[in-house]
Task: inverse folding
């Protein structure tokens, strides 16, 4: 007899998990907007440099250097990364002028990748 009850019990348990799973997903989305963002294997040359070239060079290459900030060349980028300016600006933290200037902020996943690179030591990799 017990053998008949068990499958039904586990069946409804499974359904319950399925249903609550869909609700939980929404909540998780709010808490972690970068869910699904792959920050593994982030390198300077492969990920960070192209982001800067696409979004920042127009104002911060060696020739323009608006605001006195140069983001062309690894040493210059490492300087801004390790002194906190880079994240401060792209996250628009208090005391920083939000970057890119007068444009929508970079996508959260893009920021997360730069942050990962910095947290891993801002290596010239
Ligand atoms: C349209 C031109 C423009 C673009 C594009 C731009 N910047 Fe800037 N950036 C400026 C100017 C102008 C300043 C000086 C702002 C100030 O002093 O208030 C500045 C300042 C900064 C600073 C110093 C911020 C501070 O408050 O100390 C950093 C760091 C920076 N930019 C990084 C970036 C990064 C990273 C990008 C690309 C994601 C970027 N910028 C894109 C024009 C630009």
Result:
């Amino acid at each position: 007899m017990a053998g008949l009850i068990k499958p039904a019990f586990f069946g409804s348990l499974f359904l319950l998990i399925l249903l609550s799973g869909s609700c939980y997903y929404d909540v998780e989305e709010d808490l972690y907007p970068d869910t699904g963002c792959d920050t593994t294997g982030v390198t300077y040359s492969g990920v960070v440099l192209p982001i800067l070239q696409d979004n920042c060079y127009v104002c911060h290459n060696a020739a323009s250097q608006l605001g006195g900030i140069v983001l062309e060349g690894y040493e210059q980028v490492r300087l801004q990364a390790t002194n906190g300016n880079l994240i401060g600006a792209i996250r628009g933290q208090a005391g920083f002028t939000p970057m890119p200037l007068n444009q929508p902020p970079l996508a959260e996943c893009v920021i997360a990748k730069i942050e990962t690179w910095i947290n891993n030591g801002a290596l010239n990799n």
User: Anything to note?
Assistant: The chain has two domains: 1-31, 44-119. The two ends are 64 Å apart (CA to CA). The pocket of heme C is lined by residues 55-56, 58-60, 66-67, 69, 71, 80, 85-86, 89-90, 96-97, 99-101, 106 (CB under 6 Å). Helices lie at 2-31, 44-55, 57-60, 74-82, 85-90, 108-119.
